[in-house]
């Protein structure tokens, strides 16, 4: 490697010309600023145990390396131990996400995506944060923890788990439009399902499940429950499926007659201060079942 300070191409004396070769034993390299008569010195105080090589790959294009205000840059494989401060996060992506491309080209502003992963499902309106695992990945896409206690997990199959739940707390069926609660396996089976338009719209409950109440919090013993006893039959029970419970009616104005082949049960004042239990049929004729003594 040769260094000269002779004029180059008609330039002023002092222009350095590297003509090839290798220089060893240099303790620092100074680069003169083009805007002022000061140098940027590159050096190291690290104690090396052998000759090391620092290589740059700029992808055959002009690049700019910007050092943050902290004056420290951690390279790949080295942990960042930066602390946040008021109005100064340890890591900030302050740019805007790309929008308006295709589902393939509209990459998120920040993305975790292994090399070679199929990447054709991004929102064309833009994405701030994206995770895209490779096909066959069976782990967690996200795992948020506090002192090793997991609080929130998104599995590769789309199942969401909360507070260390080992089954699925929440998922969507892969075959139909239904949200499952306390799902298991693939997420298509659960305790409660909420169906959308086109598939069992409303709340569905698994066999053996009940709509139940306690006297204070959900962790307490159940004191009344409504459950499916058999096909087409509902059971109202107290502390257990064999312990009965009462159904209470409050007085109301007589309702309109139901549709054909139906009956409505209700309570009404008989006009003399007595409560009547009535059955109203499609014909409009109300029949007394019982009356207050």
Outline:
With 293 residues, the chain is mostly beta strands. The protein has strands at 3-4, 17-18, 28-32, 39-43, 110-112, 129-131, 140-146, 149-155, 160-162, 168-172, 178-183, 192-195, 202-205, 210-214, 222-230, 233-237, 263-269, 275-281, 286-291.
Structure description:
The structure is a single chain. The protein is mainly β and 293 residues long. Among the domains are: 107-118 and 125-206, no CATH class; 207-247, no CATH class; 248-293, no CATH class. Helix content is 0%, strand content 32%. The protein contains no helices and 19 strands. It has strands at residues 3-4, 17-18, 28-32, 39-43, 110-112, 129-131, 140-146, 149-155, 160-162, 168-172, 178-183, 192-195, 202-205, 210-214, 222-230, 233-237, 263-269, 275-281, 286-291. Strand 3 (28-32) and strand 4 (39-43) form a beta hairpin. It is elongated, with a radius of gyration of 37 Å. The model is unreliable at 1-13 (pLDDT under 50).
For this entry, give a set of tags.
single chain, 293 residues, mainly beta, 4-stranded antiparallel β-sheet, 19 strands, 0% helix, 32% strand, elongated, disordered N terminus
Q: Count of helices?
A: 0
Low-confidence residue ranges: 1-13
Overall 3D geometry? elongated
Strand content bin = 25-35%
Give helix and strand order, one letter per element, not per position. Answer: EEEEEEEEEEEEEEEEEEE
Which value, in Å, is the CA radius of gyration? 37 Å
* Strands, count: 19
Q: How widely separated are the two ends?
A: 116 Å
Mean pLDDT: 83
Biggest pleated-sheet summary: 4 strands, antiparallel
Strand order of the largest sheet: 10-11-12-13
The structural class is mainly beta
How much helicity do the residues have? Answer: under 10%
């Amino acid at each position: 490697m040769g260094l000269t300070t002779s004029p180059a191409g008609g330039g002023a004396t002092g222009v350095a010309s590297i003509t090839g070769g290798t220089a060893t034993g240099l303790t620092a390299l100074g680069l003169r600023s083009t805007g002022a008569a000061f140098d940027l010195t590159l050096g190291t105080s690290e104690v090396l145990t052998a000759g090391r090589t620092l290589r740059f790959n700029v992808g055959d294009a002009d690049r700019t390396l910007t050092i943050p205000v902290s004056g420290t840059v951690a390279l790949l494989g080295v942990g960042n131990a930066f602390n946040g401060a008021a109005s100064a996060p340890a890591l900030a992506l302050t740019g805007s996400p790309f929008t308006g491309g295709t589902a393939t080209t509209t990459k998120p502003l920040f993305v975790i995506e292994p090399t070679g992963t199929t990447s054709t499902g991004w929102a064309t309106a833009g994405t701030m944060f994206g995770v895209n695992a490779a096909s066959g990945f069976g782990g967690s896409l996200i795992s948020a923890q506090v002192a090793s206690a997991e609080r929130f997990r998104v599995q590769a199959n789309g199942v969401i788990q909360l507070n260390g739940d080992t089954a699925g707390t929440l998922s969507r069926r892969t075959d139909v439009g239904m949200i499952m609660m306390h799902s298991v396996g693939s997420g298509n089976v659960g305790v409660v399902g909420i169906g959308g338009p086109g598939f069992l719209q409303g709340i569905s409950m698994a066999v053996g499940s009940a709509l139940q109440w306690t006297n204070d919090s959900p962790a307490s013993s159940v004191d009344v429950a409504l459950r499916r006893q058999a096909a087409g039959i509902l059971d109202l029970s107290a502390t257990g499926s064999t312990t009965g419970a009462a159904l209470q009616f409050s007085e109301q104005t007589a309702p309109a007659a139901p549709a054909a082949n139906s009956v409505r049960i209700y309570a009404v004042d008989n006009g003399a201060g007595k409560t009547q239990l009535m059955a109203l049929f499609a014909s409009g004729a109300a029949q007394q079942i019982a009356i207050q003594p």
